């Protein structure tokens, strides 16, 4: 990805994509008719996701969609506050409509964005007051925000060589560290040895360079001696005029689960300590607004009093008066006051942190306090400056830890541990011994009792990843208490600009399958109450059941066990959900139509989790995800339906997050994974060996995942956009050409041509799962983008006949579809077909299947049942019949039915 110039971001991107001409007719979302260009471009309202405006880290980036035909690719954009003040903004394209006009754009603002609400429209952007610049020389990259200057490494161990304010270094030697041990701490011996690996840079690239925002990506592995492992990818974000910078850190596990136990993984900086010990300050956040507020050499609480002014200044972090002005009974004995140089805060569970300190190595630790959920934030420095540092989701992704070492010396060392060395080592071994399931028949029997699809060697963590977010401030002096609270709040909840639901819906993106929340009709209001009930239930269950932890946070459970009053966390395929039946989409569509911050943050955590932990990024299964299970990587079903880009697209386009963009781009060639593994290997009757010219690929869960990656690459005009476009068109054409279209179920795919072989004979092969992993959403988008009537007809047939009677199915296809499930979830296909065909009977069937088939029907009781000990660990409430499969499908059906046939909803459902 080449650097993006300052004022010509959109023009440069448009020029890069000018060679790609598209012959397909652009059509309206969900329509096959060519749409005229909009008469004028309406401005978009932009505001903060949460209250609090920009916060303590000036800088926020958002994505905004535009209706087709509104903005040419060379359009510049301006942001204006409600009071008319122009706000500096940097803009660039995220995606294009097929006619070349802008579909999604990204916009970065800096310190001037201090209003509550803004207006985004075409116009000349205001320049930042303090210009951000990026330089490259001598094997280093220098970023100057106008307030701080960061020198970044392009090789060696130091990702951030220094951060300065003017000529004063505030932090140096920013690097990555990993602690490994070769065996677990089982038993009483505790004799395992640790070894340290340091991050070593393999490459660095400037991805953006101002004028408002700069992004630098640094890649490498952790090395000790001859061994190099644990690939990392770090992005550093800088905004014009800011004294802070953000880090997004990703590592991928490529070790041996039986031999490589991570004892700690962290980010480390050195902080020069220039001030007298009594003018050096330690600040560590506890729960809420709580802080440990201390000096390295404290002068409060002593037997002799240095004076009220001296004591007050030290607590406030201000420079103390000259010691010659103090009570000399203190001044003459300063050497006898201990200097506390080392501090550690550990958060080993979601519910408790402990804080301790010591004077220096070789001496005992002193308890300094504790509490529930720490903010994951601290400060070390003095009156001449220091470093604030924070780790987002600190307690949610426990075990985590903050270390300060050597603050009494010339240089302090700060380590933010993403995995605490004081916790048990990271143990990624498979959780059982196989239970004798050494043949496919035995494994199918196991599936029939625990619902776990087990196969030896498949329950491996090799290739899974995790992304963490960190913030740093290079302060000119010790911040005030209020400033520290604001910085900590920013670490917990970074400021996020968003467009209003009305503007998101007006653009016609994501298939046009959502509309802003409307409670004007009693029947609609009732459904809104039910949607709210379900989201609140899962949000509360995450807290009540403690769905937290480094590898788990962001996921939810699959199925409930009413006998134990517990989710089935320990039973095969009933445990972690791993995106089964699209809860990710339910949450994102729920946000798009409501603008609710709590839904956004819940969906954000899920996107971070499911795109990293549930998907392989290295190895033979790279590009595939793992079916739901007791461990996120445990099940042997490795499939496109979990890794699909359809689950990542909303977050990427709403935030322009580069890491999620990487994840989707890595899937463009994932059609090749069908050479590595056959998803149906255990249940095939006929002989089958993967052939690159005849790969068996399903038109449902398989193709929808491929199509999502190809669509995203095509509309982003990425490096493989031409291939992605061709793959989309050729597979759509050859699915439509099958004797029974989508009802054919699957086809033989040629990797070299990107086409399915057209079967010589019709067959009926329909599964209730085929359309429930993003196929509905992908087809709606593609039909709205590509004028291919045969494909549209094939999809509408699938939509019309899934919920039809067996007699209707037989009359159309010569046989019925057999025993099916998930009719409520499929009601949204009735609604889509009804809207396309303007068919009131189909609209009526959509609502009938929604209310009276399966899932959460009209007879469902929406109530809470209180539970307490000894039946449960933590008192709370339950709804024993709620499952995530039904929740996700009800949510998507409700949202899409309301958008498509809401005007046909029965008055008395």
From TrEMBL:
Q: Which residues form the PcRGLX/YetA-like N-terminal RIFT barrel domain?
A: 43-120
InterPro entries documented for this protein? PcRGLX/YetA-like, PcRGLX/YetA_2nd, PcRGLX/YetA_3rd, PcRGLX_1st, TAT_signal
Q: Does the keyword Signal apply?
A: yes
Q: Which residues form the PcRGLX/YetA-like C-terminal alpha/alpha toroid domain?
A: 494-905
What UniProt keywords apply to this chain's record, in alphabetical order?
Answer: Signal
- Signal recorded as keyword: yes
**Would you indicate the residue range of the signal peptide?**
1-34
Domain PcRGLX/YetA-like central beta-sandwich, by residue range, is 133-487
By what name is this protein known?
Answer: Tat pathway signal sequence domain protein
Please report the organism this UniProt entry assigns to the protein. Answer: Streptomyces monticola
**Could you read off the lineage of the organism from its UniProt record?**
Bacteria, Bacillati, Actinomycetota, Actinomycetes, Kitasatosporales
């Amino acid at each position: 990805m080449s650097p993006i110039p300052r004022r010509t971001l959109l023009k440069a991107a448009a020029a890069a994509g000018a060679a790609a001409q598209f012959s397909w007719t652009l059509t309206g979302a969900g329509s096959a008719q060519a749409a005229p260009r909009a008469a004028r471009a309406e401005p978009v309202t932009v505001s903060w996701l949460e209250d609090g405006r920009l916060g303590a880290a000036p800088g926020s980036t958002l994505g905004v969609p535009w209706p087709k035909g509104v903005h040419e690719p060379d359009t510049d954009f301006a942001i204006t506050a409600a009071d008319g003040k122009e706000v500096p903004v940097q803009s660039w394209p995220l995606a294009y409509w097929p006619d070349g006009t802008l579909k999604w754009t990204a916009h970065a603002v800096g310190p001037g964005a201090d209003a509550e609400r803004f207006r985004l429209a075409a116009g000349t952007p205001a320049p930042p007051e303090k210009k951000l610049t990026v330089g490259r020389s001598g094997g280093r990259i220098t970023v100057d925000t106008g307030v701080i200057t960061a020198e970044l490494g392009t090789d060696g161990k130091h990702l951030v060589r220094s951060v300065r304010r003017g000529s004063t270094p505030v932090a140096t030697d920013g690097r990555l560290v990993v602690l490994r041990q070769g065996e677990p701490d089982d038993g009483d011996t505790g004799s395992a040895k640790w070894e340290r690996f340091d991050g070593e840079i393999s490459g660095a690239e400037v991805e953006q360079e101002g004028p408002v925002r700069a992004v630098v990506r640094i890649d490498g592995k952790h090395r000790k001696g001859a061994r190099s492992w644990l690939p990392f990818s770090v992005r550093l974000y800088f905004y014009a005029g800011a004294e802070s910078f953000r880090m997004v850190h990703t590592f991928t596990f490529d070790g041996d689960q039986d031999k490589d136990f991570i004892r700690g993984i962290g980010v480390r900086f050195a902080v020069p300590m220039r001030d007298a010990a009594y003018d050096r300050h330690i600040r560590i956040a506890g729960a809420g607004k709580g802080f440990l507020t201390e000096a390295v050499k404290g002068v409060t609480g002593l037997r002799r009093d240095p004076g009220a002014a001296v004591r007050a200044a030290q607590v406030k972090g201000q420079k103390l008066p000259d010691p010659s002005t103090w009570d000399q009974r203190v001044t003459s004995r300063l050497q006898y006051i201990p200097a506390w140089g080392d501090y550690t805060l550990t958060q080993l569970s979601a519910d408790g942190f402990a804080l301790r300190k010591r004077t220096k190595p070789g001496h005992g630790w002193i308890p300094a306090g504790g509490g529930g959920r720490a903010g994951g934030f601290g400060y070390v420095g003095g009156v001449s400056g220091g470093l604030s540092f924070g780790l987002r989701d600190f307690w949610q992704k426990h075990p985590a830890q903050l270390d300060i070492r050597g603050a009494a010396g010339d240089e302090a060392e700060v380590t933010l541990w993403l995995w605490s060395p004081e916790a048990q080592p990271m143990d990624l071994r498979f959780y059982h011994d196989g239970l004798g399931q050494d043949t496919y028949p035995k494994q199918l029997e196991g599936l029939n009792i625990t619902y776990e699809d087990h196969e030896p060697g498949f329950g491996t963590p090799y290739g899974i990843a995790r992304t963490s977010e960190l913030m740093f401030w290079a302060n000119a002096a010790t911040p005030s208490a209020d400033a520290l609270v604001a910085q900590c709040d920013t670490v917990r909840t970074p400021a996020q600009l968003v467009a209003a639901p009305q503007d998101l819906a007006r653009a016609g993106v994501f298939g046009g399958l959502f509309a802003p929340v409307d409670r004007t009709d009693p029947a609609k209001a009732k459904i809104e109450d039910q949607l709210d009930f379900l989201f609140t239930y899962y949000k509360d269950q995450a807290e009540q059941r403690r769905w937290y932890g480094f590898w788990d946070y962001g996921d939810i459970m699959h199925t409930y066990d009413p006998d134990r009053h517990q989710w089935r966390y320990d039973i095969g395929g009933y445990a972690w959900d791993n995106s089964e039946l699209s809860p990710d989409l339910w949450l994102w569509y729920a946000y798009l139509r409501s603008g609710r911050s709590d839904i956004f943050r819940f969906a954000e955590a899920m996107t971070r989790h499911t795109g990293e932990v549930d998907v392989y990024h290295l190895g033979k299964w790279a590009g595939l995800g793992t079916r739901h299970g007791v461990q996120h990587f445990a099940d042997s079903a490795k499939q496109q339906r979990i890794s699909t880009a359809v689950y990542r697209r909303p977050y990427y386009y709403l935030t322009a997050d580069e890491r999620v963009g990487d994840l989707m781009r890595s899937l463009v060639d994932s059609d090749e994974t069908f050479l590595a593994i056959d998803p149906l290997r255990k249940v095939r009757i006929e002989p089958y060996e993967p052939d690159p010219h005849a790969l068996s690929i399903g038109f449902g869960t398989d193709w929808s995942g491929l199509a999502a990656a190809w669509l995203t690459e095509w509309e982003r005009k990425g490096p493989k956009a031409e291939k992605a476009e061709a793959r989309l068109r050729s597979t759509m054409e050859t699915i439509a050409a099958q004797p029974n279209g989508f009802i054919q179920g699957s086809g033989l795919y040629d990797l070299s041509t990107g086409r399915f072989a057209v079967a010589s004979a019709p067959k009926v092969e329909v599964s209730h799962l085929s359309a429930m992993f993003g196929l509905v959403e992908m087809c709606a988008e593609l039909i709205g983008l590509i004028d291919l009537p045969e494909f549209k007809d094939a999809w509408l047939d699938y939509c019309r006949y899934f919920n039809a009677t067996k007699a209707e199915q037989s009359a159309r296809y010569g046989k019925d579809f057999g025993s099916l499930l998930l009719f409520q979830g499929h009601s949204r296909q009735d609604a889509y077909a009804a809207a396309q065909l303007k068919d009131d009977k189909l609209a009526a069937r959509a609502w009938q299947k929604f209310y009276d088939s399966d899932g959460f029907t009209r007879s469902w009781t929406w109530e809470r049942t209180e539970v307490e000990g000894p039946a449960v660990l933590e008192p709370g409430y339950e709804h024993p019949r709620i499952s995530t499969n039904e929740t996700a499908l009800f949510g998507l059906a409700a949202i899409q039915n309301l958008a498509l046939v809401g005007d046909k909803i029965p008055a008395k459902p």
